[in-house]
Design a protein that fits this description.
This protein is an alpha/beta fold. It folds into 2 domains: 146 residues, NAD(P)-binding Rossmann-like Domain (Rossmann fold, 3-Layer(aba) Sandwich); 135 residues, Dihydrodipicolinate Reductase, domain 2 (2-Layer Sandwich). Strands 1, 2, 3, 4, 5, 6, 7, 8 and 17 form a 9-stranded mixed sheet that branches.
Length: 329
């Protein structure tokens, strides 16, 4: 019997995980929704079935196999002390870079094993790491030597507040009104593209660790764009030996996380809204046959958020589908 719990189940990413688990009921027998901030039970639903959000207490965490912990921001991550040491934990936040916890990209790197006394505690990797890891991992066996990447992140990496603020800015501008007070971005993001608050250099070592490629030359730059959901990646990769565009395409196409766009000249984040795959555009080779330009888009809340966290949980638990047999609290 597999028992899962989501702490802060009504947070922005907590709701995404809850909705994704409602569609994957073969993964759990018992799903508990918890809150750090409420001392009283709240009524919500799981896939249309009534459910309660209970206080995150030791009693309500009893016998739980794995906890999805969804704090509001990565700077304030501290797994509640009431969580038993034998409960595995996957931390999932919108901006996805959690100090002190190893990042995991489901299907690329394995979660570290726990000990006899302490179950694994990991972070679901930053959406940019998820996208880049899936792009680069298939190329490692082709002799990948270096990658220079630019990632445009959406407002939803700032959670619900980021989405609401961008919407308010957009409405005000279109109505020729003064923009609302901004405590999220501190500037106009609507119809704009600015340097990201997350320095790309902070992603370099975690990406090397996820790929298991400590010698890989990496340079990453991030920007924040005036879009709600979905990130865009532009990357130049260099191989140790020559290859053809056809071989690169075949290698990438073999990954279950990747697919190619039907209209690569029109590819943008809107094309992957709600999608569980990364969509690739055209591949352009450099004259020497060792360098290739890649373009890709991914939904940061599905594959880059909830689905990655659930995939990490499956890897930790070794979950095997066994049919619907569910109970919700």
């Amino acid at each position: 019997m597999t028992r899962l719990a989501i702490c802060n189940a009504e947070s922005f990413l907590g709701r995404e995980i809850k909705d994704a688990l409602a569609r994957r009921r073969e993964l759990w027998d018992d799903l508990r929704l918890l809150s750090e901030t409420s001392e009283e039970a709240l009524v919500t639903d799981i896939g249309g079935d009534a459910a309660l959000v209970l206080p995150a207490t030791a009693d309500n965490l009893e016998d739980v196999d794995l906890l999805f912990f969804c704090p509001g921001a990565s700077e304030s991550v501290e797994i509640p002390s009431v969580v038993p040491r034998n409960v595995a934990s996957v931390v999932a936040v919108e901006d996805g870079l959690v100090p002190g916890l190893p990042p995991v990209v489901a299907g690329v790197n394995a979660p570290p094993a726990g000990s006899a006394d302490v179950a694994p505690r990991v972070s679901s990797a930053h959406p940019a790491l998820v996208a880049l890891a899936h792009l680069l991992s298939p190329l490692v066996d082709l002799g990948l030597e270096a990658c220079t990447a630019s990632v445009v992140l959406p407002s939803s990496t700032r959670g619900q507040a980021g989405v609401d603020q961008l919407l308010a800015q957009t409405r005000s501008i279109l109505a020729f009104q003064s923009p609302p007070a901004d405590e999220v971005f501190g500037f106009q993001l609507a119809f704009n593209l600015v340097p990201g608050s997350l320095a790309g250099g902070r992603l370099v070592e975690p990406l090397r660790a996820v790929l298991g490629a400590e010698q890989l030359e990496l340079a990453i730059q991030t920007s924040l764009g005036g879009v709600f959901h979905g990130l865009a990646v532009g990357a130049f990769v260099r191989l140790g030996t020559k290859a053809t565009e056809a071989r690169i395409r075949k290698t990438l196409k073999a990954s279950p996380a990747l697919g190619f766009a039907r209209h690569p000249d029109k590819l943008g984040p809107i094309d992957v809204a709600g999608s569980s795959t990364i969509r690739l555009g055209a591949i352009e080779a450099s004259p020497d046959g060792r360098g290739f330009w890649l373009r890709a888009v991914m939904d940061n809340l599905t594959l880059g958020g909830a689905l990655n966290a659930i995939g990490v949980a499956e890897a930790i638990l070794g979950a095997q589908p066994s049919g619907p047999r569910n109970r919700v609290m």
